[in-house]
Design brief:
Blueprint (H helix, E strand, L loop, with lengths): L14 H13 L6 H14 L3 E5 L2 H10 L11 E5 L5 H8 L3 E5 L21 E4 L11 H10 L3 E5 L7 E2 L2 E2 L6 E5 L12 E5 L2 H10 L45 H12 L1 H19 L6 E2 L7 E2 L4 E6 L7 H10 L5 E2 L4 H4 L14 H9 E5 L6 H18 L1
Parallel strand pairs: 2-3, 2-4, 4-5, 5-8
Antiparallel strand pairs: 1-9, 6-7, 6-11, 8-9, 10-12, 12-14, 13-14
Helix pairs in contact: 1-7, 2-7, 3-4
This protein binds pyridoxal-5'-phosphate (PLP).
Length: 400
């Protein structure tokens, strides 16, 4: 492969993060503690929610949010409606939570779940709709929330790729009962590996705190064990030690102090990261219009503010080249890209048992077979973007 001139992702590890990491290491308190609590508090404030619960990964954020439904009436195996097009983690999370994914095709122009196709998939066993705001483009929340209300379903948003994303003036992740974010390294705020769930509902937050720690009865917002405070008043209040009462299905999914320190450092530079990434994204969306006979990407509509996660680039019908030949050409020229995600129900083997057939999800399959995405991150400048545009132009000239 050629030397990388245009990278897919980056990470900003600030001086503050390094200082906090060293402090945590020196304190020997490196598993979940005060930095995780502070990170949760700041993340909740940023989202305007009452609570945020930090976990190990974005996949766990999805899975724990779904598993929380058991405390509020869901039964093992109940159905969750998800888009057919997403990073495979969305569908895997439904399986991990012990629930059944029911897939709905997406719209080609938004890449998101097609609300007009949801109703036909609702059954007696449906418990929730889990829209994904793919590539930071908000899903159609008005239609989704109306359907959820009509059929008494919960909405859990997979906002893994949608930090700082707005739909009709409201931040996505806050429409449903819970919103689940990934904090993986390629994402806008990162803890290297990590995830976080936001909610306004303290009962759900409490269940999430229990779920991330093996289903323990011990689920305070912050723990006094291993601090200088006095003993835990709740520990033996029920007779048994609540740290060893496991009151529900559980995961082992805590965030540690070192990860939270990286996240706290990121928060300091968050506005700069967002501004730079949005500038890059909007420039590429505008400039890609020149190639509209060959490629399409997403559009920012008036009612929304796209979260600058990455730029999808999808080949138009009937072009005389393939997605793979374009991706290979970019790679040979030092431009790192990722293929678009597969159609979970028809291209990922773990969902075969649900009986879908290739062709059931035409828009999803089209995007999956014909799309790539490239970074818009904060370490890319105008020269990088122009290089991508120039190479795309020469690829088209050579291949059409
Ligand atoms: C839409 C979506 N959901 C879930 C995840 C899972 O996040 P993680 O990689 O942090 O487990 C990702 C990861 O990028 C994602 O893109």
């Amino acid at each position: 492969m050629a030397e990388i001139k245009y990278s897919f992702g980056t990470i900003s590890i600030t001086e503050k993060a390094k200082k906090l990491i060293n402090e945590a290491l020196d304190s020997t308190r490196v598993s979940s503690g005060k930095y995780v609590r502070l990170f949760e508090q700041l993340f909740a404030e940023m989202n305007g929610t009452k609570e945020a619960v930090a976990v190990s990964t974005g996949t766990d954020a999805d899975a724990l949010a779904l598993a929380a439904l058991y405390d509020f009436g869901a039964e093992w195996g109940d159905e969750i409606i998800v888009p057919a097009l997403s990073f495979v983690a969305t569908g895997n999370a439904v399986l991990i939570a012990g629930l059944t994914p029911v897939f709905v095709d997406v719209e080609r122009n938004t890449l998101n779940i097609d609300p007009s196709k949801i109703e036909e998939k609702i059954t007696e066993k449906t418990r929730a709709i889990m829209p994904v705001h793919l590539m930071g483009k908000p899903a159609k929340m008005d239609e989704i929330m109306a359907l959820a209300k009509q059929y008494n379903l919960e909405v859990i948003e997979d906002a893994a790729e949608a930090h700082n994303t707005y739909y009709k003036g409201k931040q996505v992740g806050t429409f449903g009962i819970m919103g689940a974010y990934s904090l993986y390294v390629a994402h806008i705020i990162t803890t290297i590996e990590g995830g976080i769930i936001v909610t306004d509902n303290p009962d759900y937050a409490e269940v999430l705190r229990s779920l991330r720690s093996h289903g323990r009865a011990c689920k305070c917002t912050s723990c006094v064990v291993n601090t200088n405070e006095s003993e835990c008043k709740k520990r033996f209040a029920q007779g048994e030690d609540i740290r060893f009462i496991f009151e529900r299905y559980g995961f082992s999914s805590k965030m540690n102090e070192l990860e939270a320190a990286v996240g706290l450092g990121n928060m300091e530079v968050y506005q700069n990261i967002i501004e730079k990434r949005r500038e890059n994204l909007l420039y590429l969306i505008k400039e890609f219009k020149t190639f509209k006979n060959y490629f399409f990407t997403m559009e920012e509509e008036e009612h929304e503010k796209i979260g600058p996660h990455a730029l999808p680039i999808i080949c138009q019908d009937n072009v005389s080249f393939t997605r793979n030949s374009y991706a290979l050409f970019l790679e040979q020229n030092g431009i790192d890209s990722r293929n678009m995600f597969q159609s979970m129900p028809t291209q990922c083997p773990q969902f075969k048992r649900f009986g879908y057939h290739y062709g059931d999800f035409p828009s999803t399959e089209y995007i999956a077979n014909n799309g790539i995405h490239v970074g818009v991150h904060q370490d890319l400048n105008r020269e990088h973007l122009d290089y991508l545009l120039e190479k795309t132009d020469s690829f088209i000239k050579k291949n059409s």
